[in-house]
Amino acid sequence: MNWISNSEILIVGLGLMGGSYAKALTRLGYRVAAIDRDPEAIAYALEHGIIQAGAADAMPSLIQGADAVIFALYPTAFKEWIASYQHLLKPGALLTDVTGVKACVVYDIQAMLRNDVEFIAAHPMAGREVSGVQNADDRIFLNANYIVTPTEANSPEAIEWCKSLGRLLGFRRISTLSPEEHDEMIGFVSQLTHCIAVALMTCNDNRHLADYTGDSFRDLTRISRINEKMWSELFLLNKTELLEQMDRFIGELSAFRSMLEQDDREGLMQKMRLSTERRSYFDQ
Predict the structure, then answer these.
(1) Fewer CB within 10 Å: N-end or C-end of the chain?
(2) pTM of the full predicted structure?
């Protein structure tokens, strides 16, 4: 399936990310339907023109009519949905997702999926510290990164189709990683950073800090206002990789602490120079 204007697209899970996908695809002229168990989310999206059809249950006609299905569900709910409703999918339908962990999801989905539909996984590296379709904003995709995580079960056509979705939505860089490479990378750049932000907010209970803090603390803790249900599931599903990244970080912080304790000014400066050099990679 190509991304042609008469394609029927179904989004399952109409929260912030699903709603932002819907908003972008509707703006681009596609017919977008959605399924979400929250009837208020469906009503809001219909009222504001984010989708053209929707239901708070797995309405067969919406599933059967979809050329492509984008899943914006938590990993466990995603697998449960496929097990329960894949029999309704149109033959030849292409499926993708926005799930934040891959190895524990992709292989299971592909193993249980019918032979006449194909799932090609992706991870949009975009978001906001709010939730719900009412906060949907397709501008979050602009200049962001988008990762496709194919396996040997995927066809070249489906991989290209998934990449073309990222380009269509406005992502700046489209990358390809294996599910395992993705989970190792995401354990560092996303999950560890969320752990650090949460730890910063929980290690001091002084409620007056907001009266004194500057931009550095606000920047470091921006992501600490967190969806505890989603992120706890993601952390536990990627436990091995995240623990390894935590250990690396704790070791680096311990080395930094030792330099400070020993008045090792040159050592501290060397670490800071290395930090400045590596941070420059992100500004290119």
Answers:
(1) C
(2) 0.91
In which order are the strands placed within the sheet that holds 68-71? 53-55, 31-35, 8-12, 68-71, 94-97, 118-119
Residue bearing tokens 């019918």: 114
Q: How many CB atoms lie within 10 A of CB 273?
A: 10
Sign of dihedral through CA atoms 24, 56, 120, 157?
negative
**How would you list the strands of the sheet with 121-125, edge to edge?**
121-125, 145-149, 173-176
Strand partners, 97: 71
Pairing relationship of beta strands 68-71 and 94-97 according to DSSP bridges: parallel
Instruction: Give 92's DSSP letter.
Output: T
Residue 29, φ and ψ in degrees, nearest 5 = 100, 10
* Close Cβ partners of 151 (under 8 Å, ≥ 6 residues apart): 106, 107, 110, 178, 179
- Cα–Cα distances in angstroms (integers) from residue 260 to residues 196, 253, 266, 268, in the given order: 20, 11, 10, 7
Block means of pLDDT (10 residues each) for the chain, length 284 residues? 71 96 95 96 96 95 96 96 97 96 97 97 88 91 95 96 95 96 96 96 86 87 92 96 97 96 97 95 82
Our measurement of the distance from residue 24's CA atom to the centroid of its chain's CA atoms, rounded to an integer in Å, reads 16
